Amino acid sequence: MKRVFNFCAGPAMLPPEVMETAQRELLDWQGLGCSVMEISHRSTEFIAMAEQAEQDFRDLLGINDDYHVLFLHGGGRGQFAAVPLNLATQNGFSEHIVSGSWSRGAVKEMQKYHKTSVLAESFIDQGVVNAPNVNTLCYSDTADFVHYCPNETVDGIEISAIPDTGDVPLVADMSSCILSKPVPVEKFGVIYAGAQKNIGPSGLAIAIVRKDLAGRALPQTPSILDYQLAASHDSMYNTPPTFAWYLAGLVFKWVKQQGGVATMQAHNHKKAALLYQAIDASELYQNNVAVEYRSRMNVTFQLRDPALDAAFLKQAEAQGLMALKGHRMVGGMRASIYNAMPLEGVQALVNFMQEFERKA
Length: 360
Ligand SMILES: *Cc1c(COP(=O)(O)O)cnc(C)c1O
Known about the structure:
- By secondary structure, the chain is of the alpha/beta class.
- The longest helix has 21 residues, at 261-281.
- The strands form five sheets. Strands 2-12-11-10-7-3-4 form a seven-stranded mixed β-sheet. The chain has a three-stranded antiparallel β-sheet with strand order 13-14-16. Strands 1-15 form a two-stranded parallel ribbon.
- The radius of gyration is 21 Å and the shape is globular.
- It starts with a strand and ends with a helix.
- The protein has helices spanning 16-25, 44-61, 75-87, 101-110, 227-232, 242-258, 261-281, 309-318, 343-359, and strands spanning 5-6, 67-73, 93-98, 115-121, 123-125, 128-130, 145-148, 151-152, 157-158, 170-173, 190-194, 204-210, 285-286, 298-303, 321-322, 333-336.
- It folds into two domains: 17-258, Type I PLP-dependent aspartate aminotransferase-like (Major domain) (Aspartate Aminotransferase, domain 2), CATH 3.40.640.10; 259-359, Aspartate Aminotransferase, domain 1 (Alpha-Beta Complex), CATH 3.90.1150.
- Pyridoxal-5'-phosphate binds next to α3.
- The site of pyridoxal-5'-phosphate has 13 residues, from α3.
């Protein structure tokens, strides 16, 4: 069997142990003689699995009873609509930190439902990409919420400081950094994430919603996006994405076995440091994000001569280093190194990059 190191930004690689468990259990789950995909979401077995997955997720991030944990449809983008449809007030507005393409995309969707105001954007200073300093922004105390994206998957930008928005709920799109490090959940009103980077299969989204923020949905909010309806039906208002939920549960167990999110953080730090050091030490590769804003999950880099891009990608693939092409909007290369990427994968990439540079 052939396995590659898959650097895809999403859907991303999953831990092989998780895939093996899913494979073993595929036809006969828990001795039921059928797949977890083929049973009712109302069955005792499924509900027990679903509750355990939620509990494991709560344990991993230390989520207390002040918060709902919702398993939803529609991925990350579904939440771009769900957030304003649940949190907006009539004639209200939201404030936005636009650090890259996903937070910009969120504004575009959210402004369909209420007024949005952009507080600050990423900018280029002498060729270096900088994110806004969230500590010096001036937040309104009357906004419905403040939205930002702590890890910009496309741009390779990470903001580690957490905006202090006072009593205004802080909403974070953590699609590409959830479970990669500990998070002080109590500082947030809503945290959401599409699953296909650090959690499991695409289509699923998880939302962590402070309980007082549910139950305020606008009248026109589609029922399947309504946080309160989801919460009061234990995320089974309609049929949930059952297989994705199951697989997410396996990933949570895997993260626990690894030692939890603090261990993931140390591991991710090591991987990113190895790759950035290799980039910084080379003449051929460069990363143009300010050091303090470099993403630990999505490492972007450019070859100084873009004419070499095609050969780089082709030779990388031949060595089993897949999906390194940067997002079409930014070009260059991007190595996504989420929780499931082992250090050996990053080491193999670094070795290849050095070899390629020697020959270039
Ligand atoms: C991938 C991603 C999304 C979109 O997720 P979908 O499930 O494709 O809708 C949104 N935000 C961020 C930060 C992402 O990385």
